[in-house]
Amino acid sequence: MERLNYTTLKNNGYTGYVLENAPEKVLQFGEGGFLRAFVDYFFDLSNERHGFNGKVVLVQPIAQGLTEMVNDQQGLYTLYLRGFQDGKTVNDKRVISCVSRCINPYQDHAAFLQCAHNPDLRYIVSNTTEAGIAYDPACGFDDAPQSSFPGKLTRFLYERYLAFGKEHGRGMVILSCELIDNNGKELKKCVDKYVEQWNLPEDFRTWLDSENLFCSSLVDRIVTGYPRNEADRLNAENGYIDTLIDTGEVFGAWVIEGPEWLKKELPFCDGELPVIVTPDHKPYKQRKVRILNGAHTTMVLGAYLSGQDIVRDCMQDEVISSYMDKALYDEIIPTLTLPKDELTAFAASVRERFANPFIDHLLLSISLNSTSKWRARCMPSLKAYMEKFQAVPACLSLGLASLLAFYHGERMEGTALVGRRAKGNEYEIHDDESALRFFLSHKDDAPAAYVHAALTNTDFWGEDLTLLPGLESAVLAHYELILREGAYAAMKNVL
Q1: pTM of the full structure
Q2: What CATH number does the domain located at 6-279 have?
Q3: 391-427: per-residue pLDDT in tens?
Q4: 275-278 and 411-413 beta bridge pairing
């Protein structure tokens, strides 16, 4: 079989949408699976549906990457989005043709800077991992390239300023997709530090602020990447070799914090695609963290202790899924500020995502660092519920008790605390060493002393949870029931 490229598609009689030639309008820092299954998918649909007529040029953000593989396939790759949607199983395939090429700035820095001279370029997208948005004072203006992503971006924007600084409307819209709070604002702070460190002209600072827009954004899609176990079969079905096959779930949501005019300018804000431009993205972040992540953290530890191993199987268990539903609809959603219909629709999509037949999401993978996750994802809902209803939420407090039961380990082995579930098998608990040592030091406590020690640990929660009226007694009752009858019985008990 031939490698995927435009000629191969034509020879194979491919009848799907393909855009071979168009001006480059997007510069994308990151060539990995997430951006190709998310942002590039949206731009590809915009080309087909709205005449965006734009290509995305990828920039390899670190020294090792996929530049040669992308260019060998002329930017083409096959994307599979799979899962449940509106109660139906979906398995969509699309050849993405919006990518023009990939540049490795470590090998061809001039080509990278030359993109700044393209008058059609308008958008910059990035996903350089959580560690990517960081200021490194070792970066110099003349480095080719700068080691940090913000350093590369500052140098690129200065090149843009030199080319078009006197023309209004030639600045860039920068869309950060890294998974940190206020990603766009944090990126701008790093850029400002380089402007100061490199002593760049005051006119550039003015242009940077007046002609460029740094947008914080929230991205949401599980991308499972290259399907190693299926690749040979999929290539045989397609009749070509694609070394960049990408896979992800059907669900996707992109919330971009920006002004009203951006909503009209972006090619995919048409109501058909799950992209929202809003003056404040924080309520949507809260929705995701409290509902999606909160449901995970509330449910998975008790489900694992009950004998389950993957999320999908939990959704097929009436007791576990009903417990999660009760937590979502009765305890979490009533504490949030977005319209109820939006929240319930999002919760319904979460259930479908958890039941995805194409993703084996291991409960133990989700269990990593559960103390900090519970504090960020579940504690705000628990406290808001108690404040609003003057009562302890049964499901959320059981989730906390399940955490304490899950973390009741027997010994340290390497960097993990080793626990044992009723099923008989040992499992590894991974968290900060100080957290694991704390639980190990209390493993022989009586239940009441163990629960009290955990809830009063302000290093975990930022406060003494025993001061919340009724919480300690509720958690202790759940915990003792787990010890006597198991986590499954405890979940059944709150229904």
Answers
A1: 0.88
A2: 3.40.50.720
A3: 999 999 999 999 999 999 999 999 999 999 998 999 9
A4: unpaired
